[in-house]
Amino acid sequence: MDPTAPSGLRYDFIWDLCEENGNLYVNERLDREEMCGESATCSVSFEALVHNPLNIFEVEVSIEDVNDNSPTFRKTSLGLEIGEWTLPGARFPLEMARDADVGNNALLTYQLSSNPSFSLSLKENPGGKKHPELVLEGALDREKQSSFEMVLMAVDGGEPARSGTVQILINVTDLNDNPPKFSKSIYEARVAENLPVGSVVLRVWATDADAGSNGRVSYSFGNVPDDVLLLFTVDRDSGEVRTASTLDFEEKSKYIFGLEARDGGGLTGHCEVQIYITDENDNVPEITILSLTNPVPEDAPTGTVMALLKVRDRDSGENGQVSCELSGEAPLSIVASSGGSYKRFSVAGAAFPADFCEGTLPYSYNLCVAAPARAVPEAAWPPPPPPVPVLSAEELLGGDSCEKPSLNSTAVTGEPPADLDAAQAAWGQLRYSVPEEMPKGSFVGDVIKDLGLQLPELRDRDIHIIDRGRTQYFALHGKTGHLVVAERIDREQLCRLMDKCVLRCELIVEGKMEIYEIEVEITDINDNSPRFKDIELEEKISEMTAPGSRFPLAEAHDHDSGRNSLQSYELSGDEHFSLAVQAGPGGDQRPELVLAKALDREEAAFHELLLRAMDGGDPARTGTARIRVTVLDVNDNAPVFSQAEYTVRVPEDVLVGSVLLTVTASDADEGSNGHVKYSLKKQTDVALGIFDLNSESGEIILMRSLDFEQEDAYELEIQSRDGGSLFDTAKVVITVTDVNDNAPALTVTSQLRGISEDSPPGTLVALLHVEDRDSGANGAVRCLLDKDVPFRMQSLKGSYYSVVTARELDREQVSEYNVTVRAADGGSPALQSSAVLALRVLDVNDNAPVFAEERYSARLAENNAAGALVLRAETGALYALRSFDYEQLRELQLWQYFTVSEENGNLYVNERLDREEMCGESATCSVSFEVLVNNPLNIFHVEVAIEDVNDNSPSFSKAALDLEISEWTLPGARFPLEMARDADVGSNSLLTYQLTGIPLFSLFMQDKPGGSKQPELVLERGLDREKQSSFELVLTAVDGGDPARSGTVQVRINVTDANDNPPVFSKRLYEARVAENLPVETVVLRVRATDADAGSNGRVSYTFGSIPDAVRALFAIDSDSGKIRTAGPLDFEEKNKYIFSVEARDGGGLTDHCEVQIDITDENDNAPEITILSLSSPVPEDAPVGTVVALLKVRDRDSGENGQVSCELSGEAPLSIVASSGGSYKVVTAGALDREQASEHRDRIGLSLKISVTSRAIPGEKGRVSGYGWQVGCDLDGSINE
Description:
Layout: E1 15-17, E2 24-26, H1 32-36, E3 43-50, E4 55-62, E5 77-83, E6 91-93, E7 107-112, E8 118-124, E9 130-136, E10 147-156, E11 163-173, E12 181-182, E13 186-192, E14 200-203, E15 206-207, E16 218-221, H2 226-231, E17 232-234, E18 240-243, E19 254-262, E20 268-278, E21 286-292, E22 307-312, E23 323-327, E24 335-336, E25 341-343, E26 366-370, E27 430-435, E28 443-446, H3 447-450, H4 455-460, E29 463-465, E30 474-476, E31 482-485, H5 491-494, E32 502-509, E33 514-523, E34 531-532, E35 536-542, E36 550-552, E37 556-557, E38 566-572, E39 577-583, E40 589-595, E41 606-615, E42 622-632, E43 640-641, E44 645-651, E45 659-662, E46 665-666, H6 671-674, E47 677-683, E48 691-693, E49 699-702, E50 713-721, E51 727-737, E52 745-751, E53 754-756, E54 764-771, E55 781-785, E56 791-795, E57 800-805, E58 816-825, E59 832-842, E60 869-873, E61 876-879, E62 898-900, E63 907-909, H7 915-919, E64 926-933, E65 938-945, E66 960-966, E67 974-976, E68 990-996, E69 1001-1007, E70 1013-1019, E71 1030-1039, E72 1046-1056, E73 1064-1065, ...
Parallel strand pairs: 5-11, 13-20, 27-33, 35-42, 44-51, 53-59, 66-72, 74-81, 83-91
Antiparallel strand pairs: 1-2, 3-4, 6-9, 7-10, 8-9, 10-11, 12-15, 14-18, 16-19, 17-18, 19-20, 21-22, 22-25, 23-26, 24-25, 28-31, 29-32, 30-31, 32-33, 34-37, 36-40, 38-41, 39-40, 41-42, 43-46, 45-49, 47-50, 48-49, 50-51, 52-54, 54-57, 55-58, 56-57, 58-59, 60-61, 62-63, 64-65, 67-70, 68-71, 69-70, ...
């Protein structure tokens, strides 16, 4: 039979041989897959026995395959999760189908149902099998389509073909690729001043098309002034903008600020909020006496100015319009002046009373200010005032004070009383006995009868039990005179640890004044079970402890007494232990655990026992305790590496600190004995200092950068040692693969510094040399020049290039060239280097001079210094020879910011003017005031415009801006950055932004509705977190002043991980060779896959792929470590090779596959089998020499040397044994037979197994078969006929 077919099956009954024609027929249905499994060929071999003459022929029948099995998948559907950030071209391995057929009938190809976003690719494994991979053809957008359904069909090559299908369900996971978007770019609101704090002003609203946290929007202020933060708040969840303090129209009537909406992934959107404050009539007009003439001459002419008043109302519009009137009988009138002033209380006539005294005015006057009725209803203004006092002019500048009442409080206290009593006890003369736990009312004794009293005396003489203030366990029944139980009696509670339990009480007969003492003995009942203090006991015993050793156990306790107390112990649960009970000094029983059989921690680390304690009650009560025996380890096992040799291939640009490989050694011991530490035992000179072996984890870590160009392979010898100094060694081979890590080296060997503009084309300008240390395509270099330059490259011999002029030069158009020469290699991505050739074009006199402008103009500020620069042109400069003065002013007296010289009337700045402090963000800034002039008395309105100077630099609210950008973000994505603030206005305000850093990012400025510029960071190229996980840029805000001012902020970008790296096995094919009959859970090999991603995306778990159930029954894989262990017995004779696939899956659902090939080696575990096929008995004594007497079949199911057998014949009979084909033997006559000399011969045939000389070999075994009177060794019983 074919060695790959299961040899445990018998095939002799399958065939039928026709005796008439000798044709061989099939006796029953043949199933090739059942007979030979996955073997490529299938044949059945057997022997045919032929009589007359007796002979054996070997027959082999080949079983051809028919297409009777369809391809099948292990699951009905496959679920995949793919991020919408995944780039087109990404591949996702799918489950392979299984087809039990072979050859052309086996699985041939796969087909995928049509879908424009996905296609199917077939990857051929080392064993020739095709592995289906799903390929992403176009970018995904979860917001457009969040899931896909497709059908994968596996088709075999039979005729007709068979197929099997599986449904593929793809869920598109969300990428934060949509920033929040406000419903408006500008939100406007108009609210009245003096709103209550907490009032809603408006609500902004932003939406985000992403899902989950990526679509959850929170709101906050942008870079806004502090006064806005004091006046307004924004709810981070609802977007409601509320007042945080009182709004005052008179302080500011309009607020403009920015709001930011940020999603859970850090993307932002911005809007502008404009809040207009409307005026309320909340300010009373203010009157200020600017000047007062007192006394007034009685001959003062009509129109004489007596006083100047300033009237001001801080409200605006109609609320701020005031009228001024004069009441009283004085001959005065009031006249309005400019700027809210009133001048001249004019004398209307000279009619003064007769009691007028010189120097006084006998009249008082009131100034009354009222607002028009259209601003505030008449009912509300003016409010009902107290009577207006009559004041003198001086008193108008004064004021009154007021007091506020104080508050009082009281307190109440109290005292609590307390009191206690005590009681006493007595003994008695009557004695009774009663069991514990009797119900209330149970009979104890007939007290009346026992005392010789009659029942009538019970009532007449007031007989009762004396109450001493303690618990009364007994009572006297009022009708019968019986002593009964009054309370529950628990003997163990009342008389714990006492052999005899007696309760006492006193009975008094009031009529006789006699006291009787009563004693009641409480007898025990079996109401308590034996109990252990701890129901879980733990013992720790070393596995080296000798049998017979004893270990005391905790005793049980039983509160009952006598026979009801603890009587015996029993132990159950394990053959390794027995129980012994020792008697203590007080007669108590003390249990001991006895070790009956030697322990082996590796066989059983724990033993669970049950200790039972029993009392003598009827029925008996028991208590139990579980005993957990922990077997302490001794160091009787050495560590064993999972592989004798580890190999790994790593690229030369792997990061320092990366884990290249993890070696594992297992030790069956525990604790320090099983704690394995790893060390480098031996390494080549070139490997010194490059690798480090973590003594705890077994991780081989890169300590210095690798360079393929210096060394492409390293060998290490590692050692694992346990805490008891036992060890094992293994070999590690690290192969370095080349990556494109060397940019081409571009050297300018020679060049011209200057070249005449009339040089002809082809003039040699520079000579260059290029070299790249990488190999293959990574080292192939090509050179290029910038476009639109009058030069070209020419390749010379070897690695040299020349730069020559391509056309004529013109110095007047371009006077010098910085020509960039770029050298790029053939790697992916390509690396390049460059060199700049600075070439100056030498002039030839071929142009006449020309002015740049026909007319020049300039502006000069007044009060300039002599010699100040007025204008600079290409040919010279214009300077002022003296100072210039624009105007002259008379003497003035001003307040706060300005002062006037009394000598020349010039206006001067009184203190430093800060336009930003005075006018904030207003585009224009001016100060208006009135000037009071005496002699003659008058008022003039003055307005001074404050011009802006560039004294403020743009500033950011933070020193650094932190952004998180996923590595899956597509190029072109924009990320709004914080806007800077510049307190200056006009040309001095913020003008533009600049970005410095790396070419991966650029800057775009979005024009806002108000004319400001919003900086946005633009991703120019795809990110790869595994190559670079963070970036630092500098954003500079520059204003338009001269000289310009700037402010900077650091932009820190953290690249978050995307699951863009599938797990990668260190090998495509893992091979192991193990002996049959290994113990279950023996480690066969370990697969290892690495994933460059981080977190859960980089966490790899291992499972079997689509494999037969027979393989699952024999092998198991640890999902975390990748260790493959035996799950059932391996039998070389049933199958000597297993090939199956293993899948590695990361936390994001990406997978990789490898193939595992396990070869089973043969052990000598089968004894030879002897079958007597034919026996001729009796044998004629005249049978010629060579006559066949018997045919034997000898078979050993082992292979190789273990299956080679020899057959020998012992005894004195003239017979010999001759080997035939196919393991058959003939017993033939070796000489003449003589019946008279020996009528019967008994020869014994023994078989010995030919054994190769190895330590694993076992002695040859003898086969034994019964039948036909032979024993095999077998006895051949035969007789000889005459």
